[in-house]
Design brief:
It is globular and about 45 Å long. The longest helix is centred in the C-terminal third of the chain and has 16 residues. It is 32% helix and 26% strand. The strands form two sheets. The chain has a six-stranded mixed β-sheet, with helices on both faces. Strands 2-1-4-5 form a four-stranded antiparallel β-sheet, with helices on one face. It has two domains: 155 residues, P-loop containing nucleotide triphosphate hydrolases (Rossmann fold); 63 residues, no CATH class. It is built from eight helices and ten strands.
Length: 234
């Protein structure tokens, strides 16, 4: 179930946000998009979901052309998305939020059980209004909701933002488990320490395009790569 994005151009009015953006994510692979603020990382994920319609380019999942598919149908093809800021229905309970995820692809009880197996604490919160959860629990719920569609590709936009180290570790472990179970993960992150333990490949973005890609071993062996593209040391 390879996801291939080729040469996406996207605009906000007259301003070009993506310039020939290309990426591919294979099953059981974690690809991280890194770049400075404004590099186009969030726009890239929104373009894949059809929230921002690319002006040019092609998207394919397992050989099926999804380029012009309406946004509401993208998740039905098995692409899960956890946006920055979680975007939960805060007045609804945990159970109701998860049910919305299940309805997307008419997933059954086994999908719910599997999603909850990653975050057992949510079982104790099923009838709690999601807006009253802690920040970490809200992130768990947002990921679990995306997992209810039984995705082959899961996209996460800064899932560790504002979280405590223990919660960051828990989410890292879930990403590793998903990878081991054959889910492809496209991860946008600002935190280098959250990326290095989970990534198979890092794609560095700048000015709306992927400038370079490296296998994680190459980055671990030469952290000057991080300084070159991000202006930071590891």
């Amino acid at each position: 179930m390879m996801l291939k994005i080729e040469n996406f151009d996207c605009f906000y009015g007259e301003s070009q946000a993506l310039r020939g953006f290309s990426i591919h994510v294979a099953p059981g692979q974690v690809v991280c998009l890194l770049g400075r603020n404004g590099a186009g990382k969030t726009t890239a994920l929104k373009s894949i979901m059809g929230i921002i319609r690319p002006a040019a380019g092609r998207m394919e999942l397992n050989g099926v052309d999804l380029t012009n598919v309406a946004p509401r149908f993208i998740p039905r093809h098995g692409i899960g998305y956890v946006p920055q800021g979680r975007r939960l229905f805060t007045e609804m309970t945990v159970r109701e939020n998860l049910k919305i995820g299940l309805m997307t692809r008419n997933s059954g009880p086994s999908a719910l059980e599997r999603a909850l197996s990653y975050f057992p604490v949510l079982r104790e919160r099923m009838d709690q209004r999601s807006g009253t959860l802690s920040g970490g629990e809200q992130t768990m719920l947002a990921i679990a909701r995306a997992l209810c569609i039984e995705p082959t590709i899961l996209m996460l936009d800064e899932p560790t933002e504002g979280l405590m180290p223990s919660m960051i570790a828990a989410i890292r472990d879930v990403v590793i488990r998903l990878r081991d179970e054959g889910v492809g993960v496209l991860l946008v992150e600002q935190r280098i320490d959250a990326v290095m333990p989970v990534a198979d490949r890092i794609a560095f973005m700048d000015h709306g395009a992927v400038k370079s890609e490296f296998e994680i071993d190459a980055v671990r062996a030469d952290t000057s790569i991080l300084k070159k593209y991000l202006g930071v040391g590891h």
